[in-house]
Specification:
Blueprint (H helix, E strand, L loop, with lengths): L5 E6 L6 H13 L2 E7 L10 H11 L6 E6 L3 H8 L3 E5 L3 H17 L4 E5 L10 H9 L10 H18 L1
Parallel strand pairs: 1-2, 1-4, 2-3, 4-5
Bound molecules: 4'-phosphopantetheine (PNS).
The site of 4'-phosphopantetheine (PNS) has 9 residues, from strand 1 and helix 4.
Length: 168
């Protein structure tokens, strides 16, 4: 039964987008528990620290009793094993995601055949949204309203103000 399954939704979440939120919500309806696993220490110069990313996700999902936010390092399948998770959730937006996602899913299956990767599609309005594009648009002064949770929009504004103050 999917309701008995613990799932991990791993990623960088720098920052959390509305597409991520949509997938986590869908996952929370499907699985008994969904653990948002924020990867530690991959990007040398992230926009948000891991601590900030965890805080943001915890605030967004404060009302969800079966959503947990955590960090992990090392092999994802090892982390899944430690957490008792038998599913890895990944969002698939477009064909362009497929090759990378298929490689990861098959490598993870090779490493641990007991953990199944489950792909979920976000709602259509988020199919073009990525953390990378959000950061680019914000850095160039554009609006990402509606494409990220309100708290992320506010934090992005704070970061931009801080940068502008430093430059002034
Ligand atoms: O949101 P992202 O950055 O596309 O997420 C990538 C992530 C965190 C899912 C991936 O880098 C990962 O699983 N890293 C853990 C290291 C690992 O297990 N690698 C081997 C399996 S592909």
């Amino acid at each position: 039964m999917a309701a008995d399954i613990i799932a991990i939704y791993p990623g960088s979440f720098d920052p959390l987008t509305s597409g991520h939120v949509d997938i986590i919500r869908r996952g929370s309806h499907l699985f008994g528990r969904i653990i948002v696993g924020v990867l530690l220490n991959r990007d040398k110069s992230p926009l948000f620290t891991v601590h900030e990313r965890v805080d943001i996700a915890r605030e967004v999902f404060a009302g969800y009793t079966n959503v947990e936010v955590d960090t992990f390092d090392g092999l994802l399948v090892e982390y899944a094993r430690r957490k008792g998770a038998s599913a890895i959730v990944r969002g698939l937006r477009a064909i362009s995601d497929f090759e990378y996602e298929m490689q990861m899913a098959l490598m993870n299956r090779h490493l641990n055949p007991d953990v199944e990767t489950v792909f979920m599609m976000p709602a259509e309005p988020y199919t073009y949204v990525s953390s990378r594009l959000v950061k680019e648009v914000v850095a160039l002064g554009g609006s990402v309203h509606g494409l990220v949770p309100e708290i992320v929009e506010a934090r992005l504004r704070e970061k931009r103000l801080a940068r502008e103050t430093l430059r002034a």
